[in-house]
């Protein structure tokens, strides 16, 4: 289907089941995910089942810190510039003057600059189904602009664009007990529980049958408006923090932000009312995640009950991080800084050592290629990401046949690690004005288009380098940026000191050339 040769799939092979949990807006640096801060967490069951019995990534990032682009990148294994709507055709009016406005050639509402045809026809689900014989189920949030009918590759579709926490609505296809079309719950139906129950019912139906399964389980939590389940509405463990985190960048002065790009430099000081708003958001986010914790545990338990636990891989991540007052941004995402782009990844399954760490620089764009490797497939040539399967597996004695097959055609873990990328690419295009917590200044303006590179190596050290440019339609000229930022993360973990003005000109030139190369990369020529 993708005109990609699959030279080593020449025999029937035992293939593992795969379960992928994806939350929304779940922060890592502020203690909302993994690793925990101060050994407190709203997700103790997940901590025991996935972190304790699997691997945890320590340098995992998102490519684009906002929902629709991020999720598009995850399901395709492509960077944003390779799934964007092409608004730069000479003489043609831009199709999407802003991220939420306009329509593409098929009449679809723009999904934050994403061309959904470049997403829905090229998912990892399609490869798993058509090339590896998987049955694939989607449960929960797919893209913000969610198709009514499942894209190629999805056998079962219980999906939406996020929707409501209570009385949620979903597009439906092939769900037992429900007619195809749309389903809306009643006022007591809580979306995380509904998604969990439907996915578990499907797993019960397909597990252990003639096909391996891939379950994509994506609750709305912990997205705005942060509404907990009724049974967790007032819960707050005595050991949990009394307020949201207060890092050095929380409610920092105008002087401290003076050398950041214009949106950040112009942010208001947080009022007492705004601080209380942030604290309330923080607590309700944790409460929503308690329900996700229940779902993850229940899914793992049902695979054990059905006798397929030892042939199932579990992955758990978020579509981006989050901010809670850092650099005076009340809450949300959309920024180049660590709190928005650094995310968690937990993985458990055959050959993954309990309590291990995965330290290489990787991103959500690498997930799809890794899923294909688990199924015994080569990474598609149109994918920009890379499989990190060899870096996850430490015990090869009891692996599914397809995993052994993939590993036999890959370099050793030592060589893969030695030749792994030493930087990551981050890319974002302005989406729209958005105000939070009653503050006057929006959390982004049209200057918030950026490309960036995140280094963690001997040459540059632990740095973030970013270039900014103005624009609203997703097409900006980064050849001549109008602002630059660079941070030494070891010395300045909360990105308060922009060191770009003091950096050697040769280093500036090299980093500019590097980030421009990343912006043009496609498929196998991406680092």
What is the element layout, followed by pairings?
Layout: E1 17-23, H1 44-51, E2 55-57, E3 60-61, H2 67-76, H3 117-120, H4 124-132, E4 135-141, E5 156-160, E6 169-173, E7 181-184, H5 191-206, E8 213-218, H6 262-265, H7 272-305, E9 312-318, H8 338-341, E10 342-343, E11 345-348, E12 356-358, E13 362-363, H9 367-374, H10 389-392, H11 401-408, H12 413-418, E14 423-428, E15 449-457, E16 461-469, E17 483-488, H13 505-520
Parallel strand pairs: 1-8, 1-9, 2-12, 3-13, 4-5, 4-8
Antiparallel strand pairs: 2-11, 3-10, 5-6, 6-7, 9-11, 14-15, 15-16, 16-17
Low-confidence stretches: 1-13
- CATH homology group of the domain at 17-78 and 124-421: Alkaline Phosphatase, subunit A
Radius of gyration: 22 Å
CATH class of the domain at 17-78 and 124-421: Alpha Beta
Distance between the terminal alpha carbons, to the nearest Å?
A: 25 Å
Series of secondary-structure elements, N-terminal to C-terminal: EHEEHHHEEEEHEHHEHEEEEHHHHEEEEH
**Rough outline:** globular
> Hey, roughly how much beta strand do the residues contain?
15-25%
CATH topology of the domain at 17-78 and 124-421: Alkaline Phosphatase, subunit A
Helix content: 10-25%
Largest sheet: 10 strands, mixed
Strand order of the largest sheet: 7-6-5-4-8-1-9-11-2-12
> How many beta-strand runs?
17
């Amino acid at each position: 289907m993708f005109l990609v040769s699959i030279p080593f799939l020449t025999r029937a092979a035992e293939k593992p089941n795969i379960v992928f949990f994806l939350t929304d807006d779940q922060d890592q640096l502020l203690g909302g995910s993994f690793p925990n801060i101060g050994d407190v967490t709203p997700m103790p069951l997940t901590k025991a089942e996935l972190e304790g019995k699997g691997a945890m990534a320590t340098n995992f990032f998102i490519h684009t810190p906002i929902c629709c682009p991020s999720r598009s990148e995850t399901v395709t294994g492509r960077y944003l510039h390779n799934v964007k709507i092409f608004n730069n055709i000479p003489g043609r009016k831009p199709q999407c003057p802003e991220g939420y406005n306009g329509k593409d050639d098929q009449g679809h509402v723009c999904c934050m600059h994403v061309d959904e045809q470049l997403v829905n026809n090229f998912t990892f689900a399609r490869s798993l189904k058509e090339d590896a014989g998987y049955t694939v189920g989607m449960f929960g949030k797919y893209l913000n602009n969610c198709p009514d009918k499942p894209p190629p590759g999805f056998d079962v579709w219980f999906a939406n664009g996020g929707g409501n926490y209570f009385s949620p609505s979903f597009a439906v296809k092939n769900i037992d007990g429900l007619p195809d079309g749309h389903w809306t719950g009643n006022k007591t139906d809580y979306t995380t529980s509904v998604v969990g129950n439907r996915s578990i019912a499907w797993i019960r139906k397909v597990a252990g049958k003639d096909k391996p399964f891939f379950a994509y389980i994506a609750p709305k939590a912990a997205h705005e408006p942060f509404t907990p389940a009724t049974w967790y509405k007032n819960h707050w463990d005595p050991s949990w923090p009394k307020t949201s985190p207060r890092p050095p960048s929380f409610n920092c002065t105008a002087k401290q932000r003076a050398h950041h790009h214009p949106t950040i430099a112009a942010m208001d000081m947080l009022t007492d009312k705004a601080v209380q708003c942030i604290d309330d958001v923080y607590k309700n986010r944790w409460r929503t995640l308690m329900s996700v914790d229940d779902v993850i545990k229940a899914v793992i338990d049902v695979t054990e009950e059905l006798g397929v636990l030892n042939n199932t891989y579990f992955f758990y991540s978020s579509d981006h991080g989050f901010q809670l007052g850092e650099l005076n941004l009340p809450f949300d995402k959309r920024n180049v800084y660590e709190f928005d782009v650094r995310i968690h990844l937990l993985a458990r399954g055959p050959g993954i050592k309990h309590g291990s760490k995965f330290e290489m620089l990787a991103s959500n764009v690498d997930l799809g290629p890794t899923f294909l490797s688990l199924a015994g497939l080569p990474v598609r040539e149109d994918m920009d990401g890379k499989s990190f399967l060899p870096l996850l597996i430490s015990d090869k004695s009891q692996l599914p046949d397809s995993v052994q097959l993939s590993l036999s055609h890959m370099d050793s873990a030592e060589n893969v690690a030695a030749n792994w990328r030493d930087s990551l690419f981050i890319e974002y295009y302005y989406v729209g004005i958005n105000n939070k917590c009653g503050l006057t200044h929006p959390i982004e303006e049209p200057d918030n288009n950026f490309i960036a590179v995140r280094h963690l190596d001997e040459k540059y050290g632990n740095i973030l380098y970013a270039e900014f440019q103005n624009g609203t339609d997703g097409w900006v000229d980064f050849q001549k940026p109008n602002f630059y930022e660079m941070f030494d993360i070891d010395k300045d973990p909360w990105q308060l000191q922009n060191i770009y003005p003091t950096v050697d000109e040769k280093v500036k030139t090299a980093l500019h050339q590097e980030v421009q190369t990343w912006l043009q990369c496609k498929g196998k020529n991406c680092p």
